[in-house]
Each structure stands twice: as structure tokens, then as C-alpha cells.
Design brief:
By secondary structure, the protein is an alpha+beta fold. The protein has helices spanning about 20-35, 50-55, 60-65, 85-90, 120, and strands at about 5-10, 15, 70-75, 95-100, 100-105, 125-130. The strands form 2 sheets. It has a 4-stranded antiparallel beta sheet with strand order 4-5-3-6, with no helix packed on it. Strands 1-2 form a two-stranded antiparallel sheet. The protein is globular. The relative contact order is 0.17.
Length: about 140
């Protein structure tokens, strides 16, 4: 029942058109995976065009998006978590900003890799993509 279906390189992202709500699309994709025995248990994170445009517009780190989009991450959560105080008060080396059900992370020029453990520390399932994905 979807149209204009395509995948985006090897990211696990699927772009499609539908008249259904985001939640109905998520459920339908889950049924497809379950019914076809694809053998994987996974979560699906659905965003509408409107939601993605609002996220891009609200980008708290436009300089990072321009200069190093591969080092600017966006964590997508199913629903808006109860953001713990540490997210607001985090003191680097990364920079964090919560925007609705997203956490935008500017990893800057950290050379040794981030010590952040977002899923564990927020206690909510998420998937992360860098700003390059889809741009």
C-alpha cells in the first residue's frame, strides 16, 4: 500500500509515500517484517516529511552541519523521552540538544570516540544517523 518506495544506500533507511499516519506506517512495516519471517527483531522509527523539515529547521548546530555533517548525529526515539537532567547539563566534550523526540549531538573533533551511551543512559530505544544521511 506504499508508493515511491526506495532505500537509502546501506543505512537501513526506507523512504516512501503513504496517506497513513506515521504510527500506521510503522505498524505496517512491522507486520511486513514479521509476516515474511525476515528473522530479525528490530524497531522501526518513522518520521514524516514535516517532522524532518522541522528538525532541520531547528538544528541547534548549523555550523557543524555545514562544516562537518558526518560528525553531527541525530538520535531518533520512538516517542519523546523524559529527558534526564544530564542531557540539559551535559558538559562535553560533545554538545547535546534535545528537540522533541530527537537528540542532536555535535561530536566536534573528538579523536578517541565518544563515551556517550545514549540508549542505556536515557533508557529508551533509539537509532542514530549523521547529518549527511539524506542531505
Amino acid at each position: 500500500g506504499f508508493s515511491d518506495v526506495s532505500t537509502y544506500v546501506a543505512t537501513g533507511n526506507v523512504v516512501l509515500s503513504s496517506e497513513e499516519s506515521a504510527e500506521d506506517v510503522r505498524r505496517a512495516v512491522q507486520r511486513i517484517v514479521d509476516d515474511h519471517g525476515l528473522g530479525k527483531t528490530c524497531d522501526f522509527f518513522v518520521r514524516t516529511t514535516r517532522q524532518l523539515k522541522a528538525l532541520v529547521k531547528a538544528n541547534p548546530f548549523p555550523e557543524a552541519a555545514e562544516a562537518r555533517p558526518q560528525r553531527l548525529g541525530v538520535c531518533f526515539f520512538q516517542k519523546t523521552p523524559r529527558w534526564p537532567a544530564w542531557v540539559r547539563d551535559y558538559d562535553g566534550p560533545e554538545q547535546l540538544r534535545a528537540i522533541t523526540s530527537h537528540l542532536v549531538i555535535d561530536y566536534g573533533n573528538i579523536s578517541a570516540g565518544s563515551k556517550l551511551r545514549i540508549e542505556r543512559d536515557i533508557n529508551a530505544r533509539m537509532t542514530e544517523r549523521n547529518w549527511n544521511t539524506g542531505s
